[in-house]
């Protein structure tokens, strides 16, 4: 009985230790929707140029280490690494499967397939090659292989100066296409939103010549190019024949995007006015980072360039918050939008950076956190710029209105009178309809000013303007013509009707009483001159001159009257 117990224990222990070995193998009959990192073993040797055969022998000898993560991550500037896993096919047919390395910036990838001890297939890919040299047209690195019956060992060598993060998928061709299509839809939505905002803000810049709109358009466009660079869309669609630019695009575009972001922040928040010293300091820092980056590029120091650009973008994250707070303290109403947008961008950028560097799990959410944060940033800042545009337009319209309005009486001034009347005058000439003009003048206004002071005189002008506005018809155009003179344009109005309207206004004016400090009541009168078009060739100014002559007659005949006088 004791021997049986020992035997059972040994069998249990052996089966326990055999589980990981079985778990490491990929079965072609199963589906693997998640990265297969936990099925992969890796080998990091001090010898950078370890041969394929030596690596295969090391795997067979058990020198590889088992990965515990679904996504392998070896960080920035890691030495070349060898990966290996076994694929089992229990069927009697060949089974086609794709190997998808869902990272776009890997320099060199060598994939070998061994059936037994025989090398049956190999691929040599990476973004150091032309895009057209890839076995499949895909923004990531995809290889395909027909796995025969039995065990196949897949050996992979990866080399990259950039972050060596390796989400590896084992998929059917249909699963690869479906995964790519789903991602294409999501990127199409994001790129569409950002491109629409780029076009919208650039058109606003063309129309308004306001620097924030230009820098924001540039910032969004450079972010779009940066995103296309590190997602592989850029190499697939924009620069497929430029592997050298593909290698350097990430740090260069990070630097350019960050510089445009700084320029936008300084202009949008008006930091030059809010804090000139900080404005100058930011300019100096941006120039310093740019010079360091240029030196690193010219000396072909890729890793140094990458670290400078990454440090610069984190500097920008901190700077954005500081600038937002400074602007908020100066009562800039748009600073709150900027701060909230910066928080989204910072959170997204930090999550993605930590995922790429291996500090947090790498998945679609952490990898695309920057894009999600940037879309939120773009929408918030677009709302801020739209509100800024509306405010600017409102202020512009208000300024134009103030330019057309007499500020004391709130009536049109001469400029506005001609602007509104000229089209109506042209219509009346074409239709040969009667058009009348009334000009009125306060009687003895200088004496009133001398006796009671200019404040009372201003009040008289205001009350008179209110009165004639109430008595005028809806289509009539009123204006303060100058001093105590007022002008009324009456379209499609004959002389008798114009005189009736003028006389009604005159009578209403005589009823106005203005109280002054000693409870004295001040009243006043006005004289009116009326003229109507009799000749089709008369001009508007000639008609006004006729009305002015009639006003002179009204004054001469004793004031407080309308001339011509129908009662004569």
UniProtKB/TrEMBL annotation:
Uppermost EC category: transferase
GO cellular component, one term: plasma membrane
Organism: Nitrosomonas ureae
Protein name: diguanylate cyclase
Pfam families in alphabetical order: 7TMR-DISM_7TM, 7TMR-DISMED2, GGDEF
GO BP term, pick one: cell adhesion involved in single-species biofilm formation
Keywords: Membrane, Signal, Transmembrane, Transmembrane helix
Extent of the signal sequence: 1-23
Reaction catalyzed: 2 GTP = 3',3'-c-di-GMP + 2 diphosphate
Keyword tRNA processing in record: no
Ranges annotated as spanning the membrane: 184-206, 213-232, 252-271, 278-297, 303-326, 338-360, 366-386
EC number: 2.7.7.65
SMART domains per UniProt: GGDEF
GGDEF domain boundaries: 433-567
Superkingdom as given in the UniProt entry: Bacteria
InterPro entries xref list: 7TMR_DISM_rcpt_extracell_dom1, 7TMR_DISM_rcpt_extracell_dom2, Diguanylate_Cyclase, GGDEF_dom, Nucleotide_cyclase, Rev_trsase/Diguanyl_cyclase
GO MF assignments: diguanylate cyclase activity
